[in-house]
Amino acid sequence: MRPNPLRTLWQSGGAAVNGWLAIPNGFSAETMAHQGWDSLTVDMQHGVVDYQAMVGMLQAISTTGTVPMVRVPWLEPGILMKSLDAGAYAVICPMVNTREDAQKLVAWTHYAPRGTRSFGPVRALLYGGADYPQHANDTIVAFAMIETAQAIDNLDAILSVEGLDAVYIGPSDLSISLGCKPAMDDLEPKAQQAVDHVLARAKAHGIVAGIHNTGPESALKRIAAGFQFVTVSSDARLIAAGAQQVMAAMRAGLKSPTLAGDSY
After folding, report:
1. CA separation (Å) from 156 to 94, 104, 190, 191, 214?
2. What is the DSSP letter of 194?
3. Which SS3 state, helix, strand or coil, does residue 132 take?
């Protein structure tokens, strides 16, 4: 079976730089994949991506060595299994708030005897290899999102679930749940303390900790703090930022607030 570079990187003590895909398009996913990301996550929760688009995006990512990932819409067995069957090498599951939630996540992403994943790796066999069924349990990665006050209260119980590989902090939802303003980088003290706590407890349990960021500066700080998986921006944000830079340069060069009419 094709190895999972995330596991290799983490075992060496390194950190993975992850990109985020919200645009339902194979070409944009392929373009992103060729930029050197360690992994790319197709966002089916808040991105405008349906299942069929996701499959095409995974195929596009597979033209490179970038690890194909999916954030599923919710903790639900059908979409977790279909995402893995489509060739995702890691899944991120939102709103894992209890030990029972984490146990369900592990069960639904692993074949028996570890779990209850149904057998049918239709595209995963093409991507992973003919021996995928024998090695999938030790190759794919399951992330539980920690993003509520309830999850913080149950953190050690969640982290102690055998088979859980990693946790992923959603800073905005976590902030809201704790009564703070939603943010990803500059968190209010109560939210930042919760982030620090998740990182410390994950390390104590031997679990990889990941977190969402808006840009390289915050991501680098979080790697320095001990996070081994950092998401840096998204395809939609990067397109907008690049377009803004171009338009700002054009307006400055034309000495006009717009590019319309007499400014030419």
Report:
1. 18, 16, 19, 18, 28
2. H
3. helix
Whether 197 is a known active-site residue: answer no
User: Which stretches of the chain score pLDDT less than 70?
Assistant: 256-264
* Phi, psi for residue 145 in degrees, rounded to 5: -80, 130
Asked if residues 193 and 152 have their Cβ atoms less than 8 Å apart, the reply is no
Q: Which residues contact 138 (CB under 8 A, 6 or more apart)?
A: none
Please choose, from the candidates 97, 235, 87, 262, the residue with its C-alpha nearest in 3D space to the C-alpha of residue 177. 97
Which residues partner with 157 through β-bridges?
Answer: none
Q: Integer distance in angstroms from the first to the last C-alpha of the chain?
A: 58
pLDDT single digits (tens) 140-196: 999 999 999 999 999 999 999 999 999 999 999 999 999 999 999 999 999 999 999
Phi and psi, residue 201, nearest 5°: -70, -35
User: Can you tell me the distance from the alpha carbon of 41 to that of 129, in angstroms, rounded to the nearest whole number?
Assistant: 21
* Cβ-contact 142, 115 below 8 angstroms: no
- pTM, two decimals, is 0.94
Annotated catalytic residue: which of 34, 46, 205, 212?
46
